[in-house]
Structures are given as structure tokens and as C-alpha cells.
Amino acid sequence: MSNYGSHTNGTELVSDFSARVDGRTFLITGPSQGGIGAETAVSLAHAKPAMLILLGRSLERIQPVIDAVRALNTSVQVKFVLVDLASLDSVREAADTILADASIPHIDVVINNAALMACPFELSKDGLEMQLAAGFLGHFVLTNRLLPKILAAPPGARIVNVSSIGNRAGGIRWDDPNFTAETPDKYDTWAAYGQAKTACVLYSIELNRRLSKSTPGVRSYSLNPGAVGTNLGRTLTPELIRIATIRIMGREDYMPAFKTLQQGCATTLRAALDPTLEAEDGVYLNDCQLTTDPAWIAPWALDAAAAPRLWALAEGLVGEKFDI
Q: What's the CATH number for 10-229+257-317?
């Protein structure tokens, strides 16, 4: 077991595993300024990645991150790809753009970082519950479509699905994943968040099962970045926070230890870079360590039998099969 923990900085991981950064291509979703995805990208620029592919809804929100990367390292090629992860058409167009780009022969690491949290009830234009659409289903389609370029990478490729301790707020609603069986006023925003974050973990489990048969050099991990003050919490109210502490932590008076952005991106970077993880059992990291502790990961999110069921559910929701 490593000595990394809650106080580890992202740049420390990049320094320790610079050989797993140098010359490699990283794709990151949701790298808007001030967020964990942005900090992940800037941390990687402290070494010598060949390319950072940054996917988001607005170049304006991501341009400061591109500028910060270039200020650190002018040798890094940075590509911005426009995508709305809550729109399947947009996701497919973004994937097609990347697949057609001859300057991207392969992708070494995919970091599915983008998400929504505790937002009001809304269905995407595809009729999908918005947190599930933006936080999981968009990544499901994007990553599966990009697999030819991921599988073309040298051994050691990674697919990182950023989850959250919020997985404890609820599992997969197999019979009503879009929360449409009841009226919108009955919508449980934390159950929806829990479903999306549970799906991220189960997706990693199923990716590992499927890829182990054909491409054992590719591994997927999921993780809890910890409590970090970012724009992700823009819809939170005192009442929503109170409900979350009860639902997720089991007590109303719980106060999380907030991390800096550097500490918040560290667990993502260990999942993306550290080759020693492959000698350990597990798929989910908290504070830079693999764990099955139910205080951080709910049993339903680690249910191996639920993982292929989730895959089939996701295929049905997005209307596309991925025989991997």
C-alpha cells in the first residue's frame, strides 16, 4: 500500500509517475476553470504529456485552463472538443471528431470527470434524467465509441470514471431510472445523484470484466475525489446539504474535511497513473487508496452481478449496443 492519502497533492502524483505522463495522450471531460478536471489537466502539464484533449460545453470556460497548461509547458498539444454530455447527438459527434482526427493515433488515459449534482428535475432532450445523462450515460457512449483509440494505446491504458461518496445516496433504479413514474414534485435529487455515481463504479467493474478477455493491458477505476469547493455545488441549499449529510453520511451534524483542488485531483491522478494499483484488488479509490469500506462505497455499487445488468440498461437507454 502506498503512503498517499487525503493530503496528497496532484502534482506529487504527476512527479512520482512522470514516466506514465510523458509522451502520453489524456482525455478529460468537464475541465472547466476552477474544477477538479481543470486541476487534473494543469497538474499533468507539470510533466510532459504529448496531448491533452479537453471536452466541455464552452471554450470560454476552458480557455483559461488551456492558457495555464501552455504557460507551464509549451510543448503540450492541447485540443478542445465541444460536447454536451447530456445530448447523445453531441456526444456521438464529439466521438466521431476524435476518431477522425489523424493527429490522435491513440488515447492512453480517459478521465470521465464531468457531472451534475443535486439539480432540479429535468429530462435531457433524449428523455433521460439529467444527472444520469450528464454524469454517466454520456460518458458510457463517449468512452465505448472511443475504444478503438484506447485499445490502440500501448499497454497501461486507463479509463477513470469519477464517482463520489454520493453513491451511498442510492443505487440503480432498475424500473424507473429516469424518475418518470411519479410527478416531478416527487423527484429525489439525491437518489438521482446516487444512481449516477453508482453507475460510474459499476461501469468500471463491467469494463474490466469485458476488457480482461481481450485487452488485459487496459484497466478502469472509479473514485471519490472528496469534498472540494467547486461549481459542482452551485445548486446546493442549506436544506439540500442537511438532507445529504443524513442520507450519505448517516448523521445530520457531519462536517466533511474540505480538500484543496490539488488534493481533490490527487485520487483521480493515482487512478490514472499508478501502475502498482494493478497488483492490488479493487476498483474504487478514496483518499488515493483502493477501498471497499462501506463508509465510502455502498455494497450496491460494488455488486459484480449488477455491473452487466447496468451495461444492458445503459444500452437500452441510449439506444446503442456495444459488444466489447
A: 3.40.50.720
